[in-house]
From TrEMBL:
Pfam families: HTH_3 (PF01381)
Alphabetical list of SUPFAM superfamilies matching this protein: lambda repressor-like DNA-binding domains (SSF47413)
Domain HTH cro/C1-type residues, every copy: 20-74
Native organism taxonomy: Bacteria, Pseudomonadati, Pseudomonadota, Alphaproteobacteria, Caulobacterales
Extent of the signal sequence: none
Protein name: Helix-turn-helix domain-containing protein
PANTHER family: ANTITOXIN HIGA1, BLL7220 PROTEIN
Length: 132
């Protein structure tokens, strides 16, 4: 899923597309439901999520509101030049394929206390490190 061969604008578009898809799935929304909330067609949401169409600033704000996310959420994880680190990109792609990913992320997002979320991350990392 690496996008190293893309120009910086295309990498940013691909990153925003991935983050949009992740957030929609985390919220448990279908394409139709998000489209209705953001006042666009489901086909347009699909094009945004595939990176076929760039999301304008005003539409990104509408999508962020519809998904209960800050606008900067869509840019989290980008490095200079619009490139996501390969391990983050590969990890996100693998995670998205997991059937239980949306439920897991939704549960984690309901944890409001930042220090608790950090402790949960440390626990998950410790469990992962123990795996054969």
């Amino acid at each position: 899923m690496s996008n190293d061969n893309l120009d910086p604008e295309a990498r940013i578009t691909a990153h925003v597309a991935l983050r949009l898809r992740i957030r929609r799935r985390m919220q448990g929304l279908t394409l139709d439901q998000l489209a209705e909330k953001a006042s666009v067609t489901p086909q347009q949401i699909q094009k945004y999520e595939r990176g076929l169409n760039r999301v304008s600033a005003s539409k990104l704000l509408q999508l962020a509101r519809a998904l209960n996310a800050p606008v900067n959420y869509f840019y989290d994880g980008l490095q200079n030049g619009g490139q996501m680190s390969a391990d983050v990109e590969d990890g996100l792609a693998d995670f998205l394929r997991a059937d239980d990913a949306p439920a897991l992320v939704s549960a984690i997002n309901r944890i409001q206390v930042r220090s608790t979320r950090r402790r949960l991350l440390q626990l998950v990392q410790a469990i992962a490190d123990e795996q054969p």
